[in-house]
Amino acid sequence: MSSQSNSAPVLPAAPLPQTNSFRITGMTCAGCAAGLQRALEADPQIRSASVSIVSGVARVSTTLSADEVIARIRQRGFDGSQELSETAASGTALRQRSAETLWKRRAFIGLSLWLPLELLHWSAAGLHWHPQWMPLLMAAGSGLVLLTTGPGFLKSAWQALLNRTANMDTLIALGAGTAWLSSALILALNLNQPTWFGEAAGLLAIVSLGHWLEATVSSRAGSAVRDLLSMQPETVRVVSVDGTESTAPLAEVQPGHHIRIRPGDRVPIDGTVLEGLSDLDESIITGESLPVLRGPGDHVVAGSVNTTGQLLVAAVVAGNDTTVARIARLVEQAQTSRAPVQRMADLIAAVFVPTVLVIALLTLVGWILTGDFAGGLAAAVSVLIISCPCALGLATPMAVMAGTGAASRRGILIRSAEALERAGRSSEIIFDKTGTLTGGHPELIRLQVLPGFDSPDVLRMAAAVEIFSEHPAAHAVVQAARTQRLTWGQATQFQAFPGIGVEALVDGKRVRIERDAQASSRILIDNVPAALMELQDTLRPDAAAAVAALQKMGVHVRMLSGDRPRAAAAIADAAGIAAADVTADASPQQKLEILRNSPANTIMVGDGLNDAAALTAAPVGIAIGCGTGAALEAASVIVPGNRLLAIPDFLQIARDTLRVIRQNLFLAFFYNGLAIPLAALGMLGQHGPLIAAFAMALSDLAVVGNALRLKRRLDRRPIR
Questions:
Q1: Catalytically annotated residue among 432, 537, 656, 700
Q2: CB 3.0-4.6 Å disulfide test: which of 88, 445, 474, 521 passes with 469?
Q3: What would the pLDDT profile of 4-24 be if each residue is shown by its tens digit?
Q4: Is 256 exposed, middle or buried (0-12, 13-18, 19+ CB in 10 A)?
């Protein structure tokens, strides 16, 4: 008889969403990006999507394959290709240059054809010279502008129509097409009505000029990624086993390759010095321009400048995964993400174009009912043109690009636009103590051995356990044992209890080191108290200055510590933090609860393994750059490890960026709120479409120019 299992069949685990970047082609306006993002997010198999018109990149988190995502992008009338991480940053620069060249060509052709025709037409009207061939010349010239400059707008508008939506190009195509076709009809029927051939051509020429200037300014505002990538050479000097040197592309370097770095060279790869001694400028990471001495055994970072000696370095990462490359990817990720404040603009943009189409139609009907068809047509076309929501779509991403770029030049890495916006709204910041406000290198200043135990023996056994721990206190115990030249055997059955202590089996005895109410920690051997340890850490050199700078900005500064109240109070007093704002004896779980109950947009700053959960729970988590990998992965912002003053710098950048976002949104809303009624009521006159084209282009430039102003101001601000 065969046995039969009653257990349920084991189902395969559901695939986890993967986040990939896709280069999008065919987008011509912010409405295109917003529409594509809405379409992707509506797909039940896509967890999240972010599409940026500025970078031309879509970041999609989904269980779908890359080909399936691209198929969905093509269904919306665009094209896409998966972008590998190592080419993402350069892809943005390439797209920006391509867009700049395209719009420059369209603007040059459009203006070259339209300006002579318009000057001739106005001159003839001023001289009361009305030859019969003038309307035909205007029709032919403006038609040529439509054929050479208009296809980009018309194609985009047609694709939007096929997808049952509308975008900015819909308004441009309708405005220019309506002006030209109605003028052609008036000319064909020989009606005694004004024509708008010049306005139709001028609209396309001026909008193209505005887009060219916008693309040029955008390229400057987004230069941070290109600047970062320029900080590592494209080729390296590889030293083979027999000592010969050869030049190879950086992308081909693998861990273990030996690289020769001569004086004046930039360090091309993260690695360990094998030979040589030299001063390196590591300001790309630390923000500190003073060179530091590096020799055998020291770690060097890609992008640093070798100032004096010659170094032989063993690569520890692949050539496409250097610190510079990772920083560039983080910067682009932040620049392509969407801030929460932009959601309001996206919601408005989603209904804006259809609303404008209705307003334009009602304007035309209303003027026709008054008996003025020509005035109604001019007013309706003006409404279509002047209300293009491009400025609304650019308001936030341009400011975010400027802010994140300025931060990256100071060694401050921001993972998302959301973190930047939240920080800009923050008024409270909580510091962890050990390794954050302090140097994270405590010393064992007192070992009180209890009766019945031997001091060297207790310290030796404690070191055998602590050598497995990454906590700074553990390092202090091990260093104290080494200073006394003690030796110890291999501990077994090591266990760590976050926020409590560690234990292991040493020489057959159960040794436990845990928090204590009377000292920094206590040592138990076979559950019997053996000794009390007192540790002391020192304040970072710029901690007090950083706290003072934050308080001057109106930020409420608090401190969390797992240490005893006496030790925590001493550090807080030295840093300038009020005793009422100090929480001592805090376990990792208590830190989590404190963060969860803190005001919205509170910032948490930490570095250690015990801070990772709190950094994740905080609205904005800041990890100092010398912290552990767990904290760096959990944080939304990373600042240079030796510069706490980078934190008030980051907060000021965030506040300035949020202020510019608000200014840009106000400009966009105020412009459209004022311009649409003026156009609908015919207050722009017969030349309304042309005036509208100028006004629309100027609104875009006002928003982009404001972001560029932010970039210049931030770049000029000295690094603290």
A1: 432
A2: 474
A3: 444 444 445 556 678 888 888
A4: exposed
DSSP-assigned letters across all residues of 329-376: HHHHHHHHS--THHHHHHHHHHHHHHHHHHHHHHHHHHHHHTT-HHHH
Which helix (H) or strand (E) segment holds residue 220: the answer is: helix 197-221
- 413-414, strands of its sheet edge to edge: 413-414, 637-639, 620-624, 603-606, 428-432, 556-560, 582-583
- Name the CATH code of domain 233-321 (choices 3.30.70.1490, 3.40.50.2000, 2.70.150.10, 2.115.10.20): 2.70.150.10
Class level of CATH domain 18-88 = alpha beta
Domain extents in the chain: 18-88, 233-321, 413-438+540-639, 443-536
| Cα 557–Cα 559–Cα 561 angle in degrees, nearest 5 | 175
User: Which residue is it, tokens 């003028």?
Assistant: 183
Q: Is the dihedral of CA 205, 103, 403, 599 positive or negative?
A: positive
- Exposed, middle or buried by CB within 10 Å (0-12, 13-18, 19+), for 457? middle
For residue 322, the SS3 value is coil
Domain 443-536, CATH number (from 3.30.70.270, 3.30.565.10, 3.90.1150.10, 3.40.1110.10): 3.40.1110.10
The answer to whether the CB of 605 falls within 8 A of the CB of 430 is yes
What is the signed CA dihedral for 674, 675, 676, 680, rounded to 10 degrees? 110
C-alpha span between 280 and 314 (Å, rounded): 16
Contact indicator for 363, 668 with CB cutoff of 8 Å: no
Which pair of structure tokens corresponds to residue 167? 């975008």
Angle 104-668-650 (CA atoms, 0-180°, nearest 5)? 90
Reply yes or no on whether 432 is catalytic: yes
- d(Cα 58, Cα 56) in Å, to the nearest integer? 7
Which letter does DSSP use for residue 629 in this model?
A: H
**What is the radius of gyration, based on Cα positions, of the chain?**
32
Query: How would you class 610 by CB atoms within 10 Å of its CB: exposed for 0-12, middle for 13-18, buried for 19 or more?
Result: buried
Q: Which fold has domain 413-438+540-639?
A: Rossmann fold (3.40.50)
Question: Which of the residues in the chain have pLDDT under 70?
Answer: 1-16, 28-31, 54-55, 83-96, 125-126, 165-167, 214, 217-230, 283-290, 331-338, 345-347, 349-350, 387-390, 608-610, 626-634, 686-687
509 beta partners:
506
Say how many C-beta atoms besides its own lie within 10 A of residue 672's C-beta.
Answer: 21
Distance CA 141, CA 122 (A): 15
Please state the pTM of the whole predicted model: 0.69
Beta carbons of 612 and 441 less than 8 angstroms apart: no
Nearest-angstrom CA–CA distance, 485 and 652: 49
